[in-house]
Design a protein that fits this description.
259 residues, alpha+beta, five-stranded mixed sheet, 5 strands, disordered N terminus
């Protein structure tokens, strides 16, 4: 650690020199953080002010994350910490999908930050669902897939879910029905029929995820879809699609002519 011992520092000029040299020594020792504090940045470069001036799309992943984190740690401002986290987790998506234990294990993060992040993610999912309530799902397949991906893609286990629709193909509800290996033995048509009748649904879009990230539908997926389609036809409920969620946009059985 650098030390400066001046005994004659009575004049303003000498005092200014001491402060200047002290600052240089502190920077070299890594103990000076003031010049890196976000509040000392030009207004147009601070993440929050930049967002308000230019819009959220103008910010990098690290800058957006810094706004959420709000503060950094000793020697690292919020943007530095955000960059460290993105590097450690391997990108934004792995960070956002990290479990509580893995997330909180990193220096500068705790349960409060984790809870805040989960709240933001859930707000995003609910925003997508609210948008679907106003839209025809068949006319807005991209929005439908984004919503289903937001619900299922991050899960480490398979989930079979239903997007229940009214006669105008607007969302009534999203329901997770089964977890585990999704096949004809684990997904029971009578439970699916009962759920749709309870909600007075006129149509349905099925979805399930592949934790491997490969969304290619299996033969079991196709057989199950057709079995459910035939069962629901008896109660006048239309199966519009079955979407397999993985990396990318997912795969639609309807688009492949597999219904």
């Amino acid at each position: 650690m650098c030390r400066l011992d001046y005994h004659d520092a009575d004049t303003p000029r000498r005092t200014s020199s001491i402060r200047y040299i002290a600052c240089i020594c502190q920077v070299q020792c890594g103990s000076f953080t003031g010049m890196h504090a976000i509040r000392d940045w030009p207004a147009g470069e601070r993440p929050r002010e930049k967002l308000l001036l230019q819009g959220a799309t103008a910010l990098s992943d690290a800058e957006l994350l810094a706004i959420l984190l709000r503060s950094g740690v000793a020697g690292r401002n919020a943007v530095d910490l955000a960059r460290d986290l993105l590097s450690a987790f391997g990108g934004l998506r792995p960070l956002l999908e990290a479990g509580q234990q893995a997330f909180c294990a990193h220096h500068g993060l705790g349960v409060a930050s984790y809870a805040q992040l989960q709240a933001v993610l859930e707000l995003g999912r609910r925003h997508l669902q609210a948008e679907l309530v106003r839209l025809d799902c068949l006319d807005n397949p991209a929005t439908t897939r984004r919503f289903l991906a937001s619900r299922l893609r991050h899960l480490p286990y398979e989930v079979f879910a239903c997007l229940l629709l009214d006669n105008r193909h607007r969302v009534i509800a999203f329901e997770e029905l089964f977890r585990g290996t999704i096949d004809g033995a684990s997904v029971h048509p009578r439970e699916v029929v009962r759920l749709l009748l309870e909600h007075n649904a006129a149509a349905v879009i099925f979805a399930h995820n592949h934790p491997s990230g490969v969304p290619e539908p299996s033969r079991a997926d196709i057989r199950l879809t057709r079995r459910l389609r035939d069962a629901l036809a008896l109660v006048d409920v239309r199966v519009l699609d079955h979407i397999v969620i993985g990396e990318g946009d997912g795969v639609s059985l309807a688009e492949r002519g597999l219904l």
